[in-house]
Amino acid sequence: MLRFKHLFVTIVGLALCVLSAQAQPRDSKRFAAIENEKIAYITKELNLTTAEAQRFFPIYNQYSKAVWNVRSQRQDDSTPSPKGTNSFNRSSGQRDVLSYDAKELNIKKEYRAKFAEVIGQSRASQFFEVEQNFRELLYKELQNRKRNE
């Protein structure tokens, strides 16, 4: 029980330090709460020890920021085109969806190797599945809240 308390306090403290150090416009109270839930979920699902969590989450935060940047670029480049034109054939600033997917895949490959140094190859690969499962749980929760409103 004492070990669990220590693990929980360490992870929450680490999460709060990281979130406060990376004050960005996207950091709202809801975002911080979701990110804390995500950190707890990842810790539980990957069965991270305290030492592993302390080494893993700074790398995870770098990964998260890199992926966020690629997704933001994709969003910025997806401005609606004038009616009757194809957004993929615009003469200025063609949007190549596959290039964004390739960038994101390269980031995942790079960080899987970094994660493996801390938590081993198996759990590093499992991380991406755990992250997807969390997104699905979050989406289901959002859908349930919308139905109940």
Automatic annotation (TrEMBL):
Comp. bias regions, Polar residues? 78-94
Q: Is Signal given among the entry's keywords?
A: yes
Start and end residues of each stretch annotated as Disordered: 71-95
Q: Which organism is it from?
A: Sphingobacterium wenxiniae
Give the protein's recorded name.
Answer: DUF4168 domain-containing protein
Q: Where is the signal peptide?
A: 1-23
Q: Enumerate the UniProt keywords alphabetically.
A: Signal
